[in-house]
Amino acid sequence: MPLIRDTWYVPRRTFDNTTCVETRFTADAVYVRNNLRPDAGTVVFTHDEWRVFVAGVRDGDYDI
């Protein structure tokens, strides 16, 4: 989790801030949105849900 809370965070692997998701970590949840269309909607995860999702990414469950 980034050290800065309550701020939208763009991953380091983003190329010129295009086609990526932004995350915002709060004390209660993790918010995820499309950085090119932030008004299109936001998905909200609990911290436990986020941990499970990130573990699945690391394990290759979501490789394209």
Report on this model:
The chain is of the alpha+beta class and 64 residues long. The chain has one domain (1-64). The chain has 1 helix and 3 strands; from the N terminus they run βββα. The chain has a 3-stranded antiparallel β-sheet with strand order 1-2-3. 2% of the residues are buried. The mean pLDDT is 88.
List keywords for this structure.
single chain; 64 residues; alpha+beta; three-stranded antiparallel beta sheet; 19% helix; 20% strand; globular
Explain the layout of strands and helices.
Blueprint: E1 21-25, E2 30-34, E3 43-45, H1 47-58
Antiparallel strand pairs: 1-2, 2-3
Order of helices and strands: EEEH
- The 3D shape can be described as globular
Q: Number of helical segments?
A: 1
User: Mind describing the biggest β-sheet?
Assistant: 3 strands, antiparallel
Low-confidence stretches: none
Find the count of extended strands (DSSP E, 2+ residues): 3
Q: What is the overall pLDDT average? A: 88
Helix fraction, binned, reads 10-25%
Sequence of strands across the biggest β-sheet:
1-2-3
Ends: how far apart? Answer: 24 Å
Proportion of residues in β-strands: 15-25%
Provide the structure class.
alpha+beta
